[in-house]
TrEMBL record:
Sorted UniProt keywords: Antibiotic resistance, ATP-binding, Cell membrane, Membrane, Nucleotide-binding, Translocase, Transport
Annotated compartments: Cell membrane
GO molecular function, one term: ATP binding
Protein name: Daunorubicin resistance protein DrrA family ABC transporter ATP-binding protein
Family: Belongs to the ABC transporter superfamily. Drug exporter-1 (DrugE1) (TC 3.A.1.105) family.
One matching Pfam family: ABC_tran
């Protein structure tokens, strides 16, 4: 088996008394999207900064295409692209002007910078707005422009740090389409995000990071399967939620999550039941308890539920960044 294109082994990073990374391991095959999930302050952006040669680790090693990110930093920078949480483009320039400027900063000749700018604008649907000031671009257009500035040198590996933060659904879909197109052409993408549906739809593999370590990894389906399916029940009478919870807990061995205001309950099916739970049994036992069910179904858990089970926190919440820690932001591309 070929060596993964991105490898981190035992990465450690500390900011004063704050341990951002505590021996993190990661391996990413070429031509895939890897989603890195974690609460605020978990170490996601610190990981990206180290892999992108913007920060040195205190311990451990990391390699991009076999090149050590510390000892071979110049070689690594020629292989990667980076788009951070905030657009690094100049709002006073046109879209075309931004790309030509970045091309020159990457030491392309004037002719090559012009040619590459036009290629990218055409490919990513920005040619009609190419000669407009970026100041007048929508949020989604700015993010697409920021994304393609990181593609001028055709990177083998692209790091995206929460690329769709603050975008509306249509703009998010446009960014997702752009990412899929890049991967289809062979680019490897490492994506940090707090949008679990984004990771579910884009990522071939997901690594969950908490307290500076990878605590779980696998495909989205593998992670969902690791916590088992869920039983969902909707009651005709919401006032009977407590009685229904007792019945479901006894059947499944799990702890039901109940919403008394809506009369809905959800319970994991790997909680310790001695035999598989059948929907007919659920309906029968609820009837015996005098509880009428409007709907009973079994479903796979969402990534949000996996994340909550693994970290004890919802995906959009996390501890405040400790004093002295490096901010979980990357404001400029490489």
């Amino acid at each position: 088996m070929a060596e993964p294109i991105v490898v981190a082994e035992g990465l450690r990073k500390r900011f004063g008394d704050t341990h951002a990374l505590r021996g993190l391991d990661l391996a990413l095959p070429a031509g895939r999207v890897c989603g890195v999930l974690g609460p605020n302050g978990a170490g996601k952006t610190t990981l990206i900064r180290i892999l992108a040669t913007l920060s040195d680790p205190d311990g451990g090693t990391a390699r991009i295409a076999g090149h050590d990110v510390v000892r071979k930093a110049d070689r690594v920078r020629a292989l990667i692209g980076l788009a951070g949480q905030y657009a690094a483009v100049d709002e006073k320039l046109t879209g075309r002007g931004n790309l030509r400027m970045f091309g020159r900063l990457y030491h392309l000749s004037r002719a090559d910078a012009r040619r590459r700018a036009d290629e990218l604008l055409e490919r990513f649907g920005l040619m009609e707005a190419a000669d407009r000031q970026v100041l007048g671009y929508s949020g989604g257009m700015r993010r697409r422009l920021d994304l393609i500035t990181s593609l001028i040198l055709r990177p083998q590996v692209l790091f995206l740090d929460e690329p769709t933060t603050g975008l509306d659904p249509r703009s998010r879909n446009e960014i997702w389409d752009s990412i899929r197109e890049l991967v289809a052409d062979g680019t490897t993408v490492l994506l940090t995000t707090q949008y679990l549906d984004e990771a579910d739809r884009l990522a071939d593999a997901v690594a969950v990071v908490d307290h500076g370590r990878v605590i779980a990894d696998g495909t989205p389906d593998e992670l969902k399967g690791s916590i088992g399916d869920r039983l969902d029940v909707a009651l005709e009478d919401a006032s009977l939620v407590a009685r229904a919870a007792t019945v479901l807990g006894g059947l499944t061995g799990g702890e039901p999550e109940a919403a008394p205001e809506t009369g809905r309950l959800s319970v994991p099916l790997n909680g310790g039941a001695k035999a598989p739970v059948r929907l007919a049994d659920v309906v029968r036992e609820l009837d015996r308890a005098g509880v009428a069910a409007a709907d009973v179904s079994v479903r796979r858990p969402t990534l949000d539920e996996v994340f909550l089970r693994l970290t004890g926190q919802p995906a959009t919440a996390g501890p405040a960044e400790p004093a002295g820690a490096e901010p979980e932001k990357i404001k400029e591309g490489v």
